[in-house]
Amino acid sequence: MKEEQTVCYSCTNENCFIKKHLHLEQMITYISKKQNITCKKSDPFITEGAPLQGLYFICKGKAKTVKTGINGREQIVRLTTNGDIIGFRGFGTSKRYLIGAYALEDTVLCNFSNETMQEILHHIPEFTYALMLFYAEELNKSENNIRKIAHMNVRERVIDLLLYIHRKFGQRNGLIDIELSRKEIADFAGTTEEQAIRILSSLKKEALIKTEGKRVGILEVSELRSEIMEHKYF
Fold first, then answer.
1. How many CA atoms lie within 13 A of 108 on its CB side?
2. CA separation for the pair 160, 59 (Å, rounded)
3. What residues does the Cyclic nucleotide-binding domain cover (predicted)?
């Protein structure tokens, strides 16, 4: 993991929370205080339980956030890409990170320290309001996921995951634009690697998906949606 200079004003990532507020004159002061970090694939950049060191914004790349569950097993709780924020769950209320985070590919991160973020929140009300709405939306998503997953069987959870990454990352050349191992799919779907492999194999035989290495391509989006429609997919 190494530092890399990234200039916000020339950044092409329009989804970034920081980029969206660069029109505010006050932001100039805080942009110069951020740290830019490059992570290689599989590098950890947040350790669960480590002292809080501000928020991370993905400039370019993909990452996963994990949380330790029963019997010390890590479960993937979120997949992130360009513009997403990482480390926000403990910010402002905890002195330690509540999650861990790893790069899924070579990734460029922008880190704003605790002190810098607090200054921004105290002095730029537009940013603070937007972040409040972000937290409200994330809370709503978490509550919906808990309710949804509680009523899904394993096959439905795997299908729900496939549709989620299809929406979030899109497809290129017929394959979802993210590499996930069978174990990572299992961790996110809350099942075992063996079950995940079995379900993916079944979906492939039914001509609903295709696979190439660690990549999955969805062939029949509407049919997969129909399987979990009762759980209010939309």
1. 14
2. 27
3. 18-121
**What's the sign of the alpha-carbon dihedral 18, 64, 229, 159?**
positive
Q: What are the φ and ψ backbone dihedral angles of 173, each rounded to 5 degrees? A: 55, 40
Nearest alpha-carbon partner for 209 in 155, 153, 162: 162
Q: 8-23, pLDDT tens digit by residue?
A: 888 888 888 888 898 8
Q: What's the rounded Cα separation, in Å, for the pair 131 and 42?
A: 28
pLDDT 10s digits, 122-179: 999 999 999 999 999 988 888 887 777 778 999 999 999 999 999 999 999 999 999 9
Q: Round to whole Å and give the CA distance between 175 and 156.
A: 20
Q: Where are the alpha helices (DSSP H) in the chain?
A: 27-31, 114-123, 125-150, 154-169, 182-189, 193-205, 221-227
36 phi/psi in degrees, rounded to 5: -110, 130
Are the CB atoms for 179 and 146 separated by under 8 Å?
no
Residue 215 in tokens? 């990549």
Chain centroid offset of residue 74 CA: 15
Tell me if residue 102 falls in helix, strand or coil.
strand
By the 8 A CB rule, do 117 and 127 touch?
Answer: no
How far, in Å, CA of 144 to CA of 94, rounded?
A: 24
Cα 168 off chain centre by: 9
Residue pointed to by tokens 């790349």: 61
